[in-house]
Amino acid sequence: MLSEDIKKQLEKEFKELIDPVELVLHKDGSELSDEIEDLLKDISSISEKIHYRQSSLIECFDYPCIAVNTVEKDFGIRFMGKPDGGEFNPFIKTILMVSKNEYDLTERTVELIEELDRQVDIKIFITKGCGWCPPVMLKMFSFALVSDYINATAIDCYAFQDLALKYNVAAVPKVVINDKAEFVGLREENEILGHIFGAVG
To answer: Which strands make up the sheet holding 21-26, listed edge to edge?
Structure first.
């Protein structure tokens, strides 16, 4: 599925991996599930530190759904859809981020997030051709990586049109927090924090 040029580039990037990463897929019997499985197997074949497996125990809003974990921990990072096209590079960056425990947040934001004591569910509605979707997705995944109380799920609007309609997605990236707070586009960390704490208050 992946070209040899892409595999060679990924080999270089995956040399930075530290902790082993699991790509866990909850399939639903669809053709899309099979395509996602083939892609994840291809990615995992490039590095001994990336492992692919199936599991029906992954909790998600709908399926097929991918969890990006370390062997020891499920960070609540989910991807619903096939991470190709414009979603491929941010998906690879997510693997690296989880493996290296490397997040894109300021120290002050991390301090505030560590005060959370209630569950936060973040949905990030994205499309493959959206230029602002990758940085927003990675920012939300960073929040999930830092806090055990935060789960963040990227949702491909075209693969899950019913969910996109349910949440009135007219523009992307759209972020919905605990089905209470929402915003569109890339926002400052302080504003995101305000939405998070407002949604659990």
So the answer is: 50-54, 21-26, 65-70, 77-80, 150-156, 120-126, 174-177, 181-184
Superfamily of domain 4-100: Glutaredoxin (3.40.30.10)
What is the per-residue pLDDT for 27? 96
Fold entry, domain 107-200: Glutaredoxin (3.40.30)
Cβ 147 vs Cβ 116: under 8 Å? yes
- Helix (H, G, I), strand (E, B), or coil: what is residue 164? helix
> Where are the chain's structural domains?
4-100, 107-200
Write out pLDDT tens, residues 138-176: 999 999 999 999 999 999 999 999 999 999 999 999 999
Q: What is the pTM of this model?
A: 0.96
Q: Could you give the CA distance from residue 4 to residue 10 in angstroms, rounded to a whole number?
A: 10
Residue 20 CA to residue 174 CA, distance in Å, equals 31
